# Entry
Amino acid sequence: MAEHIGIVACSAEGAALCYRTICTEGPALLGRYAHPEVTMHTPPLDEYMRYIEAGDWDSVAKLMLSSVAKVAEAGADFAICPDNTIHQAFDLAIEESPIPWLHIAEEVAAEAKRQNYKRLGILGSRFLMEGPVYPSRLAAVDIEHRIPEAEYRGRINAIIFDELICGLFTPESRSYFRGVINRLRDDGCDAVVLGCTEIPLLITQGDSVLPILDSTRLLARAALRRAVGTRSQ
# Structure
């Protein structure tokens, strides 16, 4: 029997994409209409944002722990969090977690290593691009990283919080991301991480001059493999 997946969600669009990926790709592993049992919990996003904007990662971790306690109580065997930014509190949260977790950046780093990428461009919220989540995990597998310049980080952050998390995906924003990816290519990157779980709803491989690493779907697929006992694949 497949393990029960717990989703500790933060923003709606990315969490929904992760959930849909698990449910739509599950049948390839488990048979028609089948997927692992899934329980998801999320508090209102404004609770997370209050602490993120204040740099209060201890309080972010407490919110994550509150969610994971609920999915564990519902029977989840392990947890995933389809939000890159709040992974800055991951190491704080897992210390008291009742169940194990998968780490989104570790799954991305593992895929990048498998693909033999050497330098990744990182796109995501300002907090994610300027924070330690990806640098620490990429360095562990000897992969370099680059982030856009400050003016681009500001605009990307605004698109994420004013548009993407609200389900707004415009041609203008898609064009802007394309331009930023072009600049990352010029900076020597050989792939780009879509490190906000909503970005894959705006940018697909056809929009990018670089291979994309879709953090949302990579995490969902890792959860599927874990749930059905095929983590080595």
Q: What stands out?
A: The two ends are 18 Å apart (CA to CA).
